[in-house]
Design goal:
By secondary structure, the chain is α+β, with helices and mostly antiparallel strands. It has two domains: 6-80, no CATH class; 82-129, no CATH class. The chain has four helices and four strands.
């Protein structure tokens, strides 16, 4: 069974955060933030050996979606508050190189963010900064 386009909302520090689960199955969940930021998605996968214990189609999936949405909100807020610094640092790190260069990406994200940015979200972050 697969579920799509389920709305999710949370409050973070008095701010209403809206998102949409774009894909949800027993093993995978993907969510995008719609407000107050846009352009960021996140997701998780449950390995086959853990599926007897957890499923994203249960209340575990509901809480996971809210947690992912909070992380996307925090990332969007960080990008907004530090946009000029991050743009400058991306120019230094990439220095005319292709943004797909994984070594440059690792250096940029490790140096400029106080938390980990999932590989699948990095291109979205770079697109926002361009």
């Amino acid at each position: 069974m697969v579920s799509k386009n389920q709305e999710v909302s949370i409050r973070v520090g008095g701010v209403e955060v809206l998102g949409l689960i774009t894909y949800r199955s027993e093993a995978d969940i993907t969510i995008k933030i719609n407000s107050p930021y846009q352009g960021l998605t996140g997701g998780l996968h449950i390995p086959y050996f853990s599926r007897p214990f957890n499923s994203f189609l249960s209340s575990y999936g509901d809480s996971t979606a809210k947690h992912l949405l909070q992380n996307l909100y925090e990332l969007g807020h960080f990008l907004k508050e530090n946009r000029d610094f991050l743009r400058l640092q991306s120019a230094v790190c990439f220095d005319g190189k292709d943004y797909s260069d994984h070594q440059c990406q690792n250096e940029f994200f490790d140096k400029c963010f106080p938390f980990g940015i999932p590989i699948g979200t990095r291109n979205e972050v770079l697109e926002i900064l361009r």
